[in-house]
Write a structure and sequence with these properties.
The chain is α/β, with parallel strands linked by helices and 397 residues long. 37% of the residues lie in helices and 18% in strands. The strands form 4 sheets. The chain has a 7-stranded mixed sheet with strand order 4-12-11-10-7-5-6, with helices on both faces. A 4-stranded mixed sheet has the order 1-2-3-15. Strands 13-14-17-16 form a 4-stranded antiparallel sheet, with helices on one face.
């Protein structure tokens, strides 16, 4: 008999009842250091006082009123995003997939408005991940996500991540845009070098294409800049964001430059729940913290410490950890053995990690971590490596 919850998740048999800062507590009262962060969602950790107060205040006044009317919180958040990014205008949704979908629709509408309706195809990268809707799994192109959902939504061409020659060769008369992640999170923490993203901008300009960046996982401070593409100096035309923007409250947003944003005229796109007052209260509170003087600099400083420590761990236990990848507080440990066993053992030792493709364990801690939390995490990781190494007949060296 099928359970009342659809069986589409392979859940770990633990239930968390309380969160506090960088820690989660299960129903048995056991404490875990959360370096999974709800898959890069809990940017301010759990129950951050400023976020709690903002939501409590909003809950007591207004939850939902629909986008038939003005929502002042939207206007405030949109202006803050415009003031701190390349964008001229913002659309609010409920998730990263919806933000990407908005961008994909915008690409088609932009070219259609110019009289080039045939330019609808988008070039994406193998190993990419852009969401779970029919269009976004087609954009990602990963077989494990597409299996059973034929026919695949048309309109996407895939090239190798990081290869500018393949990107250029894939452009045809129907190509309208390029879509890329600065760091492929789900795909195994593969990071684009600055020259690659800069090259994509040049190619887009040369061929009259739009450049869309998916910063659903990398955005809102995760890499030590407000958005990861800022490290390269490029300016995209469209950007999808979500995850850390709400600090745990569901929200997505699609940002665009003026010439593209004009494509979304009244009635062309919408969302019933997108940008509701609760989401806006949460997101504005997150930005209060993330955009405060010195906050992102501290994220970058701590990320560099985490990188140094994890690389040292890989050097000490090459039989367990083959590589360290990523950017900022988005670190991937490529395991040599069973990934599930590594993550499970770390959890037994009190540390939560997130799996990714290519046998990679992701470290996605809240942006509010301290050096003491890094020390604690590395102590647990070392213990895990020792234990797994002992099971192999040595210490993994």
């Amino acid at each position: 008999m099928i359970p009342s919850l659809m069986p589409n998740y392979a859940r770990v048999d633990v239930a968390f009842e309380k969160g506090e800062g960088v820690y989660l507590f299960d129903s048995e009262g056991r404490r875990y250091l959360d370096f999974g962060g709800g898959i890069a969602v809990n940017s301010l950790g759990h129950c951050h006082p400023h976020l709690v107060e903002a939501l409590k205040s909003q809950v007591e006044t207004l939850w939902h009123c629909s986008n038939l009317y003005r929502i002042p919180g939207q206007e405030k958040l949109a202006q803050r995003l415009v003031d701190n990014t390349f964008a001229d205008s913002v659309f609010f949704a409920n998730s990263g997939a919806e933000a990407v979908e908005c961008g994909l629709k915008m690409i088609r509408k932009y070219h259609d408005d110019k009289g080039d309706a045939g330019r609808y195809r988008v070039i994406t990268c193998t190993g990419g991940f852009h969401g779970r809707t029919l269009a976004t799994i087609a954009a990602g192109g990963q077989a494990k996500h597409l299996s059973g959902f034929d026919p695949v939504v048309d309109g996407f061409d895939h090239v190798s991540f990081g290869n500018l020659n393949e990107m250029r060769a894939a452009i045809g008369d129907e190509t309208g845009a390029i879509l890329v992640e600065p760091v492929q999170g789900e795909g195994g923490i593969h990071t684009a070098v600055p020259e690659y993203l800069q090259g994509l901008r040049e190619i887009a300009d040369e061929f009259g294409l739009l450049l869309m960046i998916d910063e659903v996982q990398t955005g809102v401070g995760r890499t030590g800049k407000f958005f990861a593409h800022e490290w390269t100096g490029i300016v995209p035309d469209i950007m999808a964001i979500a995850k850390g923007l709400g600090g745990g409250f569901p929200i997505g947003a699609c940002l665009a430059v003026e010439k593209v944003a004009h494509a979304l005229t009244p009635g062309s796109h919408g969302s019933t729940f997108g940008g509701n007052p609760l989401a806006m209260a949460a997101s504005n509170a997150v930005l209060d913290v993330v955009l405060a003087d010195g906050f992102l600099g501290e994220v970058d400083r701590l990320a560099r410490i985490l990188w140094t420590r994890t690389r040292g761990l890989a050097t000490a236990y090459p039989g367990i950890i083959a590589d360290v990848r990523g950017a900022g507080l988005m670190v991937g440990l490529k395991c040599t053995g069973n990934l599930g066993q590594f993550i499970a053992r770390a959890m037994e030792n009190g540390l939560l990690l997130v799996p990714a493709a290519d046998n990679v364990a992701r470290l996605l801690p809240p942006l509010i971590i301290s050096e003491a939390h890094i020390d604690e995490a590395l102590g647990i990781l070392e213990k895990t490596c020792v234990e797994l190494g002992a099971g192999l007949g040595g210490e993994g060296s």
